[in-house]
Amino acid sequence: MKHCLLLLALVTAPVTAAAQATNPLWHEDKIVNYLPHMTWPEVQELRKRTDMVIIPIAALEQHSLHLPIGTDFLNGLERAKLIAQKTPVLVAPILLPGNSPYHMEFAGTITLSSQTIQQVYFEAAQSLMKHGFKRFLLLNSHGGNQIITRYIADRINQETEGIAVELGDAAAPFLIRNTGTQGARVFDRHGGVGETSTSLYMMPNLVNLEAARRATLTMPDHLTKMLPDVVAGDPTATLVFLAEGLKARSTGKGTSTREMTNTGTWGQRDPREGTAEQGRRETENFVQAAVKFIERWNQLRPMNQ
User: Fold this and answer.
1) Rounded to an integer, what distance in angstroms lies between the CA atom of residue 124 and that of residue 54?
2) DSSP code of 21?
3) Which CA distances in Å does 110 have to 124, 162, 199, 220, 279?
4) What is d(CA 25, CA 277) in angstroms, rounded to the nearest whole number?
5) pLDDT at 304
6) Digit-coded pLDDT (tens) for 194-241
7) What SS3 state is found at 110?
8) Architecture in CATH of 34-176+276-299
9) Is 176 helix (H, G, I), strand (E, B) or coil?
10) What is the pLDDT of residues 241-254, one digit of tens each?
11) Of 81, 96, 95, which is closest to residue 32 (Cα–Cα)?
12) DSSP code of 32?
């Protein structure tokens, strides 16, 4: 009996040791064309097939009661990875945080200056140029980065051998527009039904839908009066509304997130209306549009020309 127990211990010991030697938190599979997962020979091999890079430009900020701080980074990155599975293009994430000063009254938000953000991305692009990548698709997934993203693209175009576009703008003409009958439109932006739906599709295990609830909005009166025109799609109303809305408390505009919403959601809809199916449709629409743009760009300007 003693011999049997000893033999059993010898047989099982290596298995137990091997199991303990592996990080129990690691559950990530290798993703094709995703720079952090690649070896340098794999990058070199990909460069023979493409000179294009998608660089997600995101944020690390509060997303209400039910979405993670990393919502913009994770959703943007996942979109980029989905695109790279359908067409040869390198996905190169650089930073998690972006420009989010108006969310700083909510715990966990990290914000960087526009000067820091653009300089880091510009220098990262220069590094990739040294490895032979010349065309850059800047995928912004945070509204507060819009002007910064366009400035990065302009710096690349004006100051380097590279060529850059903002991928949202580039893909827009290829999007399939919804021609079906729509119900009443309601103001729905940060942390609302749209972002919740995308997140339920992209990263469902990080969404705590049970914690979500409809926000109470307390915007300045003149912005509240603009809302019907903004929701109706009035371009002038939308322009001036967003020029003033979501600005840091220090500006004195009374439009920091904490001053306008009790939950962190900036919208009138209940985020619990979000669905993974809606997120899937919108994501696939964008991914297909981005792929079509990339294919068209390759027709107009083949690699190495």
Assistant:
1) 12
2) T
3) 20, 30, 20, 26, 26
4) 29
5) 74
6) 999 999 999 999 999 999 999 999 999 999 999 999 999 999 999 999
7) strand
8) 3-Layer(aba) Sandwich (3.40)
9) coil
10) 999 999 999 999 99
11) 81
12) T
Q: What is the mean pLDDT of the chain?
A: 93
pTM (two decimals):
0.90
Q: Where are the domains of the chain?
A: 34-176+276-299
Among 62, 89, 101, residue whose Cα is nearest residue 294: 89
Query: E strand or H helix at 165, and its extent?
Result: strand 163-166
* Pair 84, 91: CB distance under 8 Å: yes
- How many Å apart are CA 305 and CA 303, to the nearest integer? 6
Instruction: Report the C-alpha gap between 12 and 170 in whole angstroms.
Output: 57
Nearest residue to 247 (alpha-carbon basis) of 266, 270, 228: 266
CA distance 305 to 302: 6
pLDDT range class, residue 185, cuts 50, 70, 90 = confident
d(CA 233, CA 215): 22
Structure tokens at 240: 């001036």
Q: Cα(115)–Cα(98) distance, rounded to whole angstroms?
A: 11
pLDDT digits (tens, 9 = 90+) for 70-113: 999 999 999 999 999 999 999 999 999 999 999 999 999 999 99
Burial environment of residue 102 by CB neighbours within 10 A (0 to 12, 13 to 18, 19 or more): buried
Longest dimension (CA), the chain: 86
Question: CB of 98 within 8 A of CB of 144?
Answer: yes
In the 8-state DSSP scheme, what is residue 67? B
What pLDDT is stored for residue 205 in this prediction?
97
